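Dear colleague,

Thank you for sharing your sequence with our group. We've completed the structure prediction you requested, and as agreed, I am returning the results in plain text so they can be pasted directly into your records. Please verify that the sequence below matches your submission; if there's any discrepancy, let me know and we will rerun it promptly.
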Amino acid sequence: MSLLQKICLAYFVALMIAASLNYVPGLTDAEGLAFGIFALDIYDDALHVASALWALIAALMSRTAARLFLLLFGAAYLGDGIFGLFTGYGFLDLGIFTNDSLGPELSVLRIAANLPHLALGGFALGSGLLIGERR
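Please find the predicted structure tokens below.
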């Protein structure tokens, strides 16, 4: 199994954990915010499960499928995190289409809310680009 496939397996685990956050007692506050930072709903959970299954399938298929997952997933999640910083909402859950923009803000809370997508997306895209070129 290639390094890219192993990274996809790690993404499968991470995304399944993200999908389960709302269902673990004590991780959400009285307002329904996970870790007191971001709200996850059924659409977010579905997105995370679908992404996790895509990562698993890519990991099991081939090195090429794993690289493609990392490139596409990485670009989508990184872009979603960037949109979140500038508008307060991402596009993967259609938030930018259903809510008015909150405007750009680089507060600690806004950064923390978008950090998971920025980090996951950035690492995936970087892995697909950098590791994908080496054979």
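Summary note from our side: The helical segments are 3-20, 42-61, 63-87, 95-98, 108-133.

Kind regards,
the structure core
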